[in-house]
Write a structure and sequence with these properties.
By secondary structure, this protein is of the alpha/beta class. The chain folds into three domains: about 180 residues, Orthogonal Bundle (Globin-like); about 90 residues, Translation factors (Elongation Factor Tu (Ef-tu), domain 3, Beta Barrel); about 120 residues, Nucleotide-binding domain of ferredoxin-NADP reductase (FNR) module (Rossmann fold), CATH 3.40.50. About 35% of the residues lie in helices and about 15% in strands. The chain contains twelve helices and eleven strands. A six-stranded antiparallel beta sheet has the order 4-3-6-1-2-5. It has a five-stranded parallel beta sheet with strand order 9-8-7-10-11, with helices on both faces. A hairpin with a 7-residue loop joins β3 and β4. The chain is globular, with a radius of gyration of 22 Å. The protein starts with about 60 loop residues before the first helix and ends with a helix. This is nitric oxide dioxygenase. Its cofactor is heme b; FAD. It holds the Pfam family Globin. Belongs to the globin family. In the C-terminal section; belongs to the flavoprotein pyridine nucleotide cytochrome reductase family.
């Protein structure tokens, strides 16, 4: 399979018109080199806040952060135009990079702006931002992204922003973006270079079983071509041979196994290229590609706190993996699982979860079924509380995650004890 996909923050859009080369500045972004400056943001003005005793979240925003957020606020309403223009600039100025992108750019819609918005949100919180960027840098290895690609991307990104944020764009704003992008790209490059020393950019994996549980849900089990280390509760990206360079994210449906096999629960969704291929086209013997594992929805085995787990639809997959993980560590901590679906048909894994309950007296599994399951989920969970001493885990549709986090906070569970899949990645898991 091809080894060439999108560049950093590539966010496809509809084919744009050829840009006017004179209408956007060619900002000079320095060529990046791998360095030892891991875990820092040295070039970005995030340390100039005058209150060193405060946490990053409580610090007044730095001047660069103010300018960057002002830019993002201005371009957000025209995000599609910005991403279209960005790619037009990139392909006109650097036509040799076009083959690195998927044939159809629609599959990558909005990824650039999502990444920028995430970076802008945490621009004054280096620990959070660095962790996000390091994951992004490691993940881009599977795309074939190299250090020398970053200046071209930065140049065209700033060109697109300057065109569509003309109301707030000035020399100081451009300088802030050059500093930010230079530092951001360096963190990504460093993370990729470090990861290259210990792991491949991707793994080939052969499909060994394909269990169609419902007409649109399949449990797909694969055997990687080499050891694949991961933690229960994490997720990875998958690429199928039918849609080269199109990657989608799926959670592992089991804890690490002695035989090395990996399982995924996949629901085919309308217009979902990867999901439909995995559910309706994949068969034993087919070979897919896996990106590196990522995600922090993992169990802290240094405590004996109870686990409150909410899984909606195929979101039960990582919840099942967490239960297996607790069992393998020999703990007897309380684990309460709420398995939600709109109909009985959606509880495709209920027999598996009930068998786990029969084997482990510390585990309770409750099904929540209703046409308005997402609305009843909070009430069902509340009825069995209190939960303030529990660590909470959520996995399911983005809407369930967003409302579930607010509900759990209302139960008295602090934010730092609530873990869930990345909502941004869930939107793209099709």
């Amino acid at each position: 399979m091809a080894q060439t996909p999108p560049l950093p923050w590539s966010a496809p859009a509809q084919p744009p018109t050829t840009p006017d080369e004179t209408s956007s500045a060619r900002a000079r972004v320095p060529v990046q080199r791998s360095s030892s400056r891991q875990g820092t943001l040295p070039a970005l003005d995030t340390t100039s806040a005058p209150f060193p005793g405060l946490s990053p979240r409580d610090q007044p925003p730095s001047p660069d952060a103010v300018r960057i957020r002002r830019t993002m606020a201005e371009v957000a309403p025209v995000a599609e135009k910005v991403t279209s223009y960005f790619h037009a600039l990139l392909f006109v100025r650097h036509p040799g990079l076009r083959p690195l992108f998927p044939a159809s750019m629609d599959a990558q819609r909005d990824r650039l702006l999502r990444a920028l918005l995430t970076a802008a949100e945490h621009i004054d919180n280096p620990p959070v931002l660095v962790d996000y960027l390091q994951n992004l840098g490691r993940g881009h290895r599977k795309y074939g992204t190299r250090a020398e690609h970053y200046p071209a991307v930065g140049e065209c990104l700033i060109g697109a922003l300057s065109k569509y944020a003309s109301g707030s764009w000035d020399r100081e704003t451009e300088a802030a973006w050059v500093r930010a992008y230079t530092t951001i790209s360096q963190v990504m490059i460093d993370a990729a270079a470090a990861d290259e020393l210990r792991a491949p950019a991707w793994w080939f994996a052969e499909v060994v079983s394909h269990d169609l549980r419902t007409p649109d849900v399949a449990v797909v089990t694969v055997r990687p071509d080499q050891p694949y280390p991961f933690l229960a509760g994490q997720y990875t990206s998958l690429e199928t041979p039918w849609w080269p360079r199109i990657w989608r994210h799926y959670s592992f449906a089991s804890a690490p196994r002695s035989d090395g096999l990996l399982s995924f629960h996949v629901k085919a969704v309308p217009a979902g290229w990867v999901s439909n291929a995995l559910v309706h086209r994949a068969h034993p013997g087919d070979v897919i590609r896996l990106g590196p594992p990522t995600g922090s929805m993992t169990v802290d085995h240094t405590t004996d706190s109870g686990l409150l787990c909410l899984g909606g639809g195929t979101g039960i997959a990582p919840i099942k993996a967490l239960v297996e993980d607790v069992a393998e560590h020999g703990a007897r901590r309380s684990v309460e699982v709420f398995y939600g679906a709109r109909t009985d048909h959606g509880l495709y894994a209920i027999d598996t979860m009930l068998r786990l309950q029969q084997s482990h007296p510390w585990l309770s599994v409750r099904a929540v079924v209703d046409q308005g399951a997402r609305l009843r989920f909070p009430e069902a969970v509340r009825a069995y509380g209190p939960w303030h001493d529990y660590d909470a885990y959520l996995s399911g549709p983005p809407g369930m995650i967003r409302s579930g986090v607010d509900t759990l906070r209302s139960f008295g569970i602090p934010s730092e004890r609530i873990r869930h899949d990345s909502v941004e990645e869930l939107v793209l898991a099709q």
